[in-house]
Amino acid sequence: MSAANFPAGSAITTQSRKAVLSVDHISKTYPVPFLRLKKALKRKFKPPVEAVHDVSFEVSEGEIFGLIGPNGAGKTTLTKVMATLIQPTAGQVTVKGYDSVHDDVAVRRNVGLAGAEERSFYWRLTAEQNLLFFARLHGLSGDQATRRISDLLRMLQLEDSARKRFAELSTGNKQRLSVARAMLADPPVLLLDEPTRSLDPLAAARMRSTIKSLSRDESRRVTVFLTSHNLAEVEELCDRVAIISKGEIKALDAPRNLRATHSDNEKVSITFVVDDAEKVETALREAFVAHPFTLGRGDVSDSWTLSFSRKTNDQTLHTVLHVLHSTTCVVKGVESERATLLEVLEHYEHPDAEPEEDALSA
Question: d(Cα 41, Cα 267) in Å, to the nearest integer?
């Protein structure tokens, strides 16, 4: 999908900073293995799989860029293309001006990849020994490697696991070790495939804090490209988010803008206190003959919660507040919420699905 095809309001790049990572019309098709042999033997075979189709975007210096989508949407394939692990069928990826195909060695010097797979570590070596091995591959000298490894183990809270064999580490610690390895050579670009996968809540929070600090360090702003199934995490971390479905980018913008442009509806919840709830319900039914709402008891005595949906900036909220005031309600709070990232993702994955309406109940 080309940049010109993004929905109105989408931001393709952060104009105030220079682009560090550029993905230009990338496509990746996996051919049928042993095709000639299968044809000669007249065996049935599945057609080639196009994992990524015509994907374009740029990531700016110091930006945290998120990619979300269902399993099989193309997230990992696209990450591997950027890391030079696989070559694209069409298009071009550049990192700091270096082409991922023709300048693959230079690209690998500028990116650090932390994948969701653990097969590339040596299971009989300790965590520290694994990092030392990969540090030497990056060209770090003995003292330099030792200091860097010590810093990373401390940063990612892996000091207690440093002398444990990789096979003995928990799944969460293996994931943190993968992030540590990606950061060994202090690359300007980090590619993080589900960086908080299998981490407990506290460890995941610390990982998010580390990622934020790396991108905000004025002395060396690290650019972060990450994929995640944790949408709350994506919303907390990412400056911009791209939604990928069936190998194509469907939308790209700041999380808040994606939620706002997805729907002009918002959910409103009003908490109030009243002595006669039946009187309030009757007044609301008279005022909203065709408008569904939900009225339920609150957490404290005589407290009630009224929930309904409305078009942004219409008069529904004003009318509801007028009804509550006329029935001697004491309003304690008003909260509104636009569409969540999950709803936006579901919209692009199932564009023909009908939205659910709130039920009228008391």
Answer: 60
pTM (two decimals): 0.75
pLDDT band, residue 8 (cuts 50/70/90): very low
Amino acid at 29: T
Alpha-carbon dihedral sign for residues 69, 74, 76, 80? negative
| Structure confidence by residue, pLDDT tens digits, 112-128 | 999 866 678 999 999 99
The residues that bridge with 311 in the sheet, in sequence order, are 265
Domain check: are 113 and 209 in the same one? yes
CATH number where 190 lies: 3.40.50.300
- The 10 Å Cβ neighbour count of residue 48 is 12
- Higher local confidence (pLDDT), 347 or 211: 211
Domain tally, the chain: 2
Cα distances from 305 to residues 24, 227, 228, 285, 327, in angstroms, run 50, 37, 34, 15, 15
Last residue of a domain, one of 226, 260, 294: 260
Closest CA to 335 of 348, 317, 319: 317
Cα–Cα distances in angstroms (integers) from residue 59 to residues 82, 189, 198, in the given order: 12, 10, 27
Mean pLDDT in residue range 143-157: 94
**Mean pLDDT confidence for 229-256:** 92
- Is 287 in the same domain as 152? no
Positive/negative CA dihedral, 69, 73, 78, 79: positive
Question: Which residue range(s) make up the domain with 324?
Answer: 264-337
